[in-house]
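Worked example 3 (structure in, sequence out).
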């Protein structure tokens, strides 16, 4: 600081001793703030369950648990960081016209070790929990040939083995999922029937063979929380366990051109009896072309009845199936 007579004074050292700053009262204050933050974070983690679609698969239970955990961790960090910022802005403000430097703090090894170690531990923790979750789901047959018996349907409780889990010999053949520009077709090899609506029996491991006839598509049912890319030229083994009856939406999660938005259909999860009944009933239906907006519009444009007004590759013909879903059917 320069005085007006021209001589200079050494500024008084303002380095603070951490031990003196952190007296018992302050430590208690900080601890109760951290406890409050912890309580809010746990509550927010519970709230996170409400932001998601219904939990219609055992995989959804695992994914939601992980999401809730990450929301809680994120909330704790967010409140901690933003709270410290706000505290500094409001209570540690420099006085008006005070342009002097802050205290020359040199560094603190203890503090630096702590703020390096804590995030490292946190990332290892999150990484481990994520890996365990994915491992428990074991949704990819050939890539991750894990035993399904390790999957939890209820958090904390070991899952009861379900038909289709243990012995691969009396399994029903996997449902063949054909994705195209732009339609979904599901073929049930054991019954030799096909449908543009996916039906699955409740509480049984559903196994799929995913294929694409043209470009990348993505098998995505938000209520099941699982998403799998379908790669042309590959057969992808995929499995999940529906645990809640209802109608859900299957969406294409890989953008695939003009009619991509119409490339969705319903998934019906029903009891074993209803499922068998449905399979039996549709076997009586003669195969016929399904509703398909992409192919219908394209054909009309080809005949000159309508003008599309946009470019598109030629859509695949509407699938010929025993059962076709109606776009008027509701879904959750
Ligand atoms: Cu696609």
């Amino acid at each position: 600081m320069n005085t007006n007579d021209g001589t200079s004074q050494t500024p008084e050292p303002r380095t603070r001793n951490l031990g003196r700053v952190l007296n018992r009262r302050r430590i208690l204050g900080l601890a109760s703030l951290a406890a409050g933050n912890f309580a809010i974070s746990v509550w927010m983690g519970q709230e996170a369950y409400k932001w998601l679609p219904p939990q219609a698969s055992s995989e959804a239970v695992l994914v939601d648990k992980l999401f809730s955990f990450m929301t809680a961790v994120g909330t704790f960090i967010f409140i901690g960081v933003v709270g410290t910022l706000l505290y500094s802005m409001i209570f540690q403000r420099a006085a008006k016209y005070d342009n002097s430097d802050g205290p020359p703090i040199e560094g603190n090894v203890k503090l630096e070790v702590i703020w390096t170690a804590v995030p490292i531990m946190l990332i290892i923790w999150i990484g481990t929990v994520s890996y365990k979750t994915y491992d428990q789901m074991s949704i990819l047959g050939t890539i991750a040939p894990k035993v399904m018996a390790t999957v939890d349907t209820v958090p904390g409780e070991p899952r009861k083995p379900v038909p289709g889990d243990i012995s691969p010999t009396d399994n029903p053949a996997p449902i063949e999922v054909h994705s195209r520009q732009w339609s979904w077709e599901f073929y049930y090899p054991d019954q030799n029937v096909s449908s543009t609506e996916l039906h699955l029996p409740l509480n049984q491991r559903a196994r799929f063979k995913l294929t694409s006839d043209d470009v990348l598509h993505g098998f995505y049912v938000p209520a099941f929380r699982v998403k799998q890319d379908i790669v042309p030229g590959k057969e992808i083994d995929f499995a999940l366990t529906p645990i809640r009856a209802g109608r859900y939406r299957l969406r294409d999660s890989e953008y695939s051109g003009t009619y991509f938005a119409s490339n969705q259909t319903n998934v019906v999860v029903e009891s074993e009896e209803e499922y068998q009944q449905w399979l039996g009933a549709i076997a009586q239906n003669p195969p016929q072309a399904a509703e398909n907006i992409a192919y219908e519009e394209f054909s009309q444009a080809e005949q000159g009845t309508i003008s599309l007004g946009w470019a598109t590759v030629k859509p695949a013909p509407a699938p010929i199936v025993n059962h076709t879903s109606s776009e008027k059917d509701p879904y959750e």
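Notes: The longest helix spans residues 58-91. The longest strand covers residues 206-212.
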